[in-house]
Amino acid sequence: MSKLIRHWSKYLEGSDKPAYLQIADLIAEDVRSGRLTARERLPALRELANGLHLNYTTVARGYAEARRRGLIDGRAGTGTFVRGTSPSLPLRGGSGAEMTMNMPPEPRDPTLLARLHEGVAAALSLDVYDLLRYQDFGGTGEDREAGAHWMRRRLPDLSADRVLVCPGLHAALTALISQLARPGELICVESLTYPGIKAICAQLGVRLHALTLDDEGPSAEGFEHACKNLAPRALYCNPTLLNPTTLTVSKSRREALAEIALNYSVPIIEDDAYAMLPRQAPTPLALLAPELTYYLTGFSKCLGAGLRTAYVAAPNARRSQRLAGALRALTVMSSPVTNALATRWVADGTAEAMAHAIRAESASRQQLAARHLAGHPYQAHPEGFHLWLPLASSWSVVEFASYLRTQGVAVVASAAFATDADPPDAVRICLGGPLSGEECDSALKLIAETLAHPLHPHATVR
Prior knowledge:
This protein has helices at 2-13, 19-33, 45-52, 56-68, 110-124, 128-132, 141-151, 169-180, 195-204, 220-229, 251-264, 285-288, 317-331, 336-348, 350-372, 397-406, 437-452; strands at 72-75, 79-82, 97-98, 163-166, 186-190, 207-211, 213-214, 217-218, 235-237, 268-271, 293-298, 310-313, 379-380, 386-390, 409-410, 412-413, 426-430. By secondary structure, the chain is α/β, with parallel strands linked by helices. The chain has 3 domains: 2-83, Arc Repressor Mutant, subunit A (Orthogonal Bundle); 87-108 and 352-460, Aspartate Aminotransferase, domain 1 (Alpha-Beta Complex); 134-348, Aspartate Aminotransferase, domain 2, CATH 3.40.640.10. α12 links the parallel β10 and β11. The longest helix is centred in the C-terminal third of the chain and has 23 residues, at 350-372. The chain is elongated. The two termini are 31 Å apart. Residues 85-95 and 456-462 have low confidence and may be disordered.
């Protein structure tokens, strides 16, 4: 460290800037140049003051300025350390590596991008006034047939008269919950689940009953106990690439849950938002308990979150019409413009091509995660774009997420997904969205470094 002090002393002697500001500038420059690296310990205040022939207060002000700029961190008893170069990650909307919203990666293949642009132009070339008018709720016959076609890879015999076209899965879930459960009644959900279902039920006054999760999925015993004693109005589950843990419910567990639902006549809401990503997945609940299951999927996780077209396959045509009434009351209708685009992309194969490209890009990002997080017990699916990272006792979840945010990387703590009172120490990390592969790689590297060197977690929590 004496070499560093000599280097700084040389620059301080030739500068008219206040010494405390120059110290912060030197730290910033040495971080950028690589002379200082992440987690490197800096000289103690008194050592640096003596080496630079400055008073203690000046050096303390210099470190305080560097800390204010996000360059260093420190805590009594552990010393002062370099935070590293992560603040230079490209900023998007005020944050750095945005890894909180579960969005698919955005493939940059020129041929695919041209195909997407052609589809948008073709959809907008339709009769403009037809697109601007009210339409029957649930989509046109062509839109419903496109939805049935898209879902037949999971539900082979699906007929279009059971399909409703909706303005996103969230709207469909809101309508379903409002139809199936009254305020004060409860539905069964996974103990870690999609945060949107928590928000919907809180708004509607519907209670959640958490089913514990194991390696095969939500507890069948817990579900049966609830059916016997609590009279749940529905079972909600996200059985393929569960958000947040990436778990896919096993075939045997799906069969057990379906059998219990049938025995107690409990409707099932099967939120299969990620179903089109893995090339193989167990039989849907909608085929195991077809007379009870509402099957939902859409494009937000296999094309892009802005394409607010989703599909619901009701147990039969009559229940489809009942659900249509609830959806109409809440949403009036889904956008004809968006529906036209989704229908065209399904019909001409663009949706499938996009899902294939996202699947491939997700696999590439998962390879980055496997390299950087090797040795850490994280959970992921090779064709998915998020992962679940349990934390060692060195970090609390809040401290870990808060520290990463100061470094320009945003992840989601487990409490956002928990439906019971005891969330695990873990975070969800999205590898998709507008992040480039290089930005994803840099963010994962920083996360790995933070896991490897939990030297001063408490200092960054605000």
